[in-house]
TrEMBL record:
Chief site of localization: cytoplasm
Catalytic activity: (R)-pantothenate + ATP = (R)-4'-phosphopantothenate + ADP + H(+)
Gene behind the chain: coaA
Name of the molecule in the record: Pantothenate kinase
Lineage of producing organism: Bacteria, Pseudomonadati, Pseudomonadota, Gammaproteobacteria, Alteromonadales
EC number: 2.7.1.33
Alphabetized GO MF terms: pantothenate kinase activity
Amino acid sequence: MSLSNTIQQALYMPFNRDSWSQLRNAVPLTLTEADLSELRGINEKISLSEVTDIYLPLSRLLNLIVKAKQQRGVVLNQFLGQQAAKSTYIISIAGSVAVGKSTTARILQALLSHWPEHPKVDLITTDGFLYPLDELKRRGLLQRKGFPESYDMKLLVEFVSAIKSGIEDVPAPLYSHITYDRLQQTISVRQPDILILEGLNVLQTELDSPVSIKRPFVSDFVDFSIYVDAEEKWLKQWYVDRFLQFRSSAFADPKAYFHHFASLADDEATKMASHVWDTINGPNLRSNIKPTRERANLILKKGENHAMEQVLLRK
Ligand SMILES: Nc1ncnc2c1ncn2[C@@H]1O[C@H](COP(=O)(O)OP(=O)(O)OP(=O)(O)O)[C@@H](O)[C@H]1O
Ligand SMILES: CC(C)(CO)[C@@H](O)C(=O)NCCC(=O)O
């Protein structure tokens, strides 16, 4: 048995799709037509059975966990004789480039906001914390985007720390996949009940970086972490497929950094995307992302066509 299998056996309770899907039955959950069209708006490729089998039980679990944390806050305030201070619950979502982190994050955002205990759910991606393009060029990191050293980790740790401190209005930097760069404008995070923080680096620590600087980890501020997992052969295929689709969407914009790829024929575009995978995203997955997997509270394992095959929950 491989080391990671041994670690998973020691740390996690495994569920196959069937046993996991039954866990939503304890509390009947239904989706209205409006909910379904909201979810279809996120990604028309997501199937209804994926939502009912995987995401409904997951949103029920998260609701119970968030409520328990809120109740703990009430007890603590009673003990201290204080007024309840507002506290944001942070859920992080990690995993490879193209595994579907942002799709998972947006589905969870939509489902979690339906619960009365936590209606305000914000979503931030760590892409905004990549150094601006000029800075990446200055540091010689243009071919290392997504690697630990390409992120301003100080800014990211300050951000999650400000959220946890209960600061009323915390700005978050934004990233554009069109310009391939950080945007000028920021977005305001105003004390949501839940913040979902999505990015390939959310389970990394400074020790994973080539230059180690002693400061707290993002995970010190995160309440519950999820790792979206899949075999690399699927990840590469999903990356290449998305790249091919981008030719008629993101790359078609004349302002796009990769506009010159818009006119590539299928075979040229496949070659190009495979090269980016083999030289950047694949090595980053193996060296810096996958090794953080068993730090997560929950692992979602996907197979062919993004179908969720297994859920591993920390004991
Ligand atoms: N559940 C799903 N069912 C079908 N297709 C999906 C699903 N989740 C994601 N995809 C597709 O897989 C590709 C990658 O998804 P997504 O953009 O959410 O990944 P990501 O992990 O956030 O990527 P990145 O790190 O590059 O931002 C997209 O083409 C998306 O449409
Ligand atoms: C922005 C990241 C790092 C993460 O989402 C990624 O999408 C990326 O741009 N990687 C660099 C190589 C590539 O263009 O896929």
